[in-house]
Amino acid sequence: MLIDQQGSAVSTQFKTSTNIRTLEPIMFYSGKDDELQFFLNETEFGELIIISLSDDQVLVKEVLLEETNEKLEWKQDHKGLRISVPEGLPKSRGDMGRVLKVMFKP
To answer: Which InterPro entries does the record cross-reference, listed alphabetically (predicted)?
Structure first.
């Protein structure tokens, strides 16, 4: 327990990140030069990391949900591509899951 300058107990909240996962998703070529698609199970949400898409390999331009073209939050660095997938997103392939489109810079 932490104590403040007046000697009173200070409660602290620690943010636990239980929804961070490293993935090796099913990846397929969309037919476009600058796009790959990734299949995610319906249970895959939260912060997802795709190690094979680190910024020393390719540079990502944007990440979209395939069915609605909704833009997803993402960050790319030397550790991989980190995508924030909200839990309530619609499923692209019926009950099976969803597909993400990853667009690359030329």
So the answer is: Glyco_hydro_b
Per-residue b or e along 12-49, where b marks 16 or more CB atoms closer than 10 Å to that residue's CB = eeeeeeeeeeebebeeeeeeeeeebbbbbeeebbebbb
Cβ neighbours, 10 Å, residue 89: 17
- Structural domains in the chain plus CATH codes: 17-104 (2.60.40.1180)
Residues 60 and 21: their CA atoms lie apart, in Å, by 19
State the amino acid at position 50 in one-letter form. Answer: I
pTM beyond 0.85, yes or no: no
**Averaged pLDDT, 38-49:** 77
The CB density around residue 62, as the number of other CB atoms within 10 Å, is: 14
